[in-house]
Amino acid sequence: MALNNKNKQPPIVDPDRNEAAILLRKGIIRRVIIVLAIIVVFVLLQQCLVITMPNEYKVIRQFGEIKSITTSSGVSLKVPFIQDTFSVPNNVQLYDIPISDVITQDKKTMVADSFVLWRVQDPTLFIRSIGGNVTQAESRISNISYNSMKNVISRLPQSEIISGRDTLADKIFENIGNQLGEYGVDMIGIETKHLDLPDDNKQAVYTRMISERNNIAASYEAEGEEEARMIRNETDMSVSIRLSQANAQAAQTIAEGEQAYMEILAAAYNDLDRAEFYAFVRALDAAKASLAGGETTLILDSDSPLAQVFYNK
Fold first, then answer.
1. What is the C-alpha separation between 36 and 38, in angstroms, rounded?
2. How many CB atoms lie within 10 A of CB 44?
3. How far is CA 115 from CA 99, 109, 148, 171, 224, in A?
C-alpha cells in the first residue's frame, strides 16, 4: 500500500517554547554552579578552620613538621591542603596496669593490680619522642610502673607490705621519679587496687597465719595465767599479813580487856559490901543457868556455896 506524501505538513516550531527551554537549562546550570561553589567554600573552610576542644592540644603540622600547638580551646586557622592537624589529649588519663606477680624480700609471691593517673605535660616532646601515640605512652608507663613496683616490694617483707599498704603507693611513686619526663608525660599518681596472694598459696598462708595467731594467743594466755598466779600469791600474802596483824591486835585488845576486868574485880573484892553484892549477883547468874531447859525447881544442899547466898544463918 503506497503512502501519499503530498498532504504531509512540515513541523511548526514555537519560538517561545525554545526560549523557555534555554532559560531552564541556564537556571539548572546556574544552580549547579552555586552548589559547587558552596561545596568548594565549605571544603576550604573545613581545611582552614581548626577547632580545639577543651580536653585536647591541637597540633598543626606542615609536611610532617610541627608548626604550632594550640593549648586553649577555640577556633583558629591553618593553610588549607598544605597543613594538617593532630590532636593530643591534655586531660588526666587513667591507665589500668595489667595484673602481674611480684616477689617480696622474704621470697613470697604476691599479685599486684594497680592503675596510674597521667597526663601529657609537653605535647611537643610527647609527639617527637613517641609520635603522640597514647598506646605507646601507656606501654612506657606500664613498664616503668611495674619495674618501680617490683623494686619497692622486693625490698620489703610480706608482713610489712600487708600492714603498710597505705604508704606503699607513695613509695612506688617516689621511686618512679621523673622517668616519664623524657616522653613529655607527667605521672600524677599510682594506686594499688589489690595486692593479694596467688590462689594456690592462699590456703597454706592462711593455715600458717592461723597457727601463728594460735601460738601468740597461747603465749598471751600463759603470760596472763602467770600474772594471775602472782597476783593471787601477793593477795594471799597480804591477807595473811592482815589476818596476823588483826589477830595480834585482837589478842592485845582481849588481854587489855582481861587486865581491866581483873583490875575491876580486884577493886570490887577490896570493898566488903561490893564483894558481897558481887557474890550475890554471881549466885543469881549460876541459879539462872541451872534452871535452863524448862526446869522451875532448884534444889540446893545447905552446905552448897550457892545455898549460903540465899540462906541467912
1. 5
2. 12
3. 10, 20, 13, 15, 47
Whether the CB-CB separation of 172 and 152 falls below 8 Å is answered with yes
C-alpha distances in angstroms, 238 versus 168, 224, 226, 229, 282? 54, 21, 18, 14, 44
Q: Which 3 state secondary structure label does DSSP give 118? A: strand
CB within 8 A of 183, min separation 6: which ones? 125, 126, 129, 130, 137, 140
Task: Enter the C-alpha cell of residue 71.
Answer: 593549648
Contacting residues for 99 by C-beta, under 8 A, at least 6 apart = 111, 112, 113
Q: Centre a 10 Å sphere on the Cβ of residue 207 and count the other Cβ atoms it contains.
A: 10
What pLDDT does residue 17 have?
61
Per residue in 33-70, pLDDT (tens digit) is 888 878 776 766 666 777 788 888 988 888 878 888 88
- With 0.85 as the threshold, say if the pTM is over it: no
**Residue 252 has which C-alpha cell?**
592485845
Measured in whole angstroms, the distance separating CA 59 from the mean position of its chain's CA atoms is: 43
Cα(213)–Cα(198) distance, integer angstroms: 21
DSSP states along 142-172 = HHHHHHHHHHHHHTS-HHHHHHTHHHHHHHH
| Partners of 188 in the β-ladder | none
**How far from 42 is each of 35, 49, 61, 200, 222, CA to CA, in Å?**
10, 10, 21, 64, 90
Which H or E run contains 82? none
